[in-house]
Design goal:
With 223 residues, the protein is mostly helical. The chain is 76% helix and 0% strand.
């Protein structure tokens, strides 16, 4: 792994952990300001992530667009739109901005935008899972038993992720059926984080395997 790849990997891990923490709203932190500052930090990290991947941005107008590339563009565009929406709505609710008549809209946009952002981020991770595994040397050795065990573990986490998605009512946030964020303090933040990590694995796996299917279909079409 090169130095640049290590920087990218570290940046991606920090951004993922920060995203999970921020999905807990302001409940985790003693002050709303902490949540807001961390949100700004995440936005800055995304700017750094885009800068490190500027070659991909420069190549958007070049070459053909097979289904997998269309999917990749859709996911990345979704992240970009949601990140800007979350940043703008967050700024409207920041402590240094006077309260305005747009606070209701900002709260609703922030709630829905943050959850859509999270799902797009999960898909983004899934579409790069193969590259990350290769950099870490995963999948080398161990044979069929190791592969089978990993797949069973992945399937179990995904099943739990689907359960957590339904139990947490995430779909209600996505479509603004619920206008206020709720976190069961009695169950603890650790369980909340575990649920959102499981959802991350679920949607990342779905995007990863969907991408593989698109690549295979494109390869068959070329033959």
């Amino acid at each position: 792994m090169t130095k640049t790849q290590r920087i990218r990997m570290t940046l991606d891990i920090v951004m993922t952990l920060l995203s999970v923490a921020l999905m807990g709203g302001t409940v985790l932190f003693p002050s709303d300001k902490v949540h807001q500052v961390l949100g700004m930090v995440l936005l800055a990290l995304w700017a750094a992530h885009v800068a490190l991947n500027r070659r991909w941005c420069a190549s958007l107008c070049k070459g053909a667009y097979p289904p997998y590339r269309v999917m990749q563009l859709f996911v990345n565009a979704g992240i970009g739109v949601c990140a800007l929406l979350v940043a703008a709505s967050g700024m409207l609710m920041a402590w240094f901005v006077p309260v305005s008549s747009a606070i209701g809209f900002a709260r609703a946009a922030h709630l829905a935008g943050s959850h859509w952002y999270y799902l797009f981020m999960c898909a983004h991770i899934g579409m790069h899972a193969g590259q990350m595994a290769a950099r870490l040397g995963a999948g080398r050795g161990g044979g069929r038993k190791k592969t089978l065990a990993l797949r069973i573990a992945l399937a179990l986490v995904c099943v739990y992720g689907a359960y957590a998605f339904a139990r947490r009512g995430v779909w209600e946030y996505l479509f603004l059926r619920r206008h206020f964020f709720f976190l069961d303090v009695e169950s603890g933040y650790a369980l909340f984080a575990a649920d959102y990590v499981a959802m991350l694995v679920l949607f990342a796996a779905a995007a990863h395997y969907a991408g593989r299917v698109l690549v295979r279909l494109a390869n068959r079409t070329r033959r």
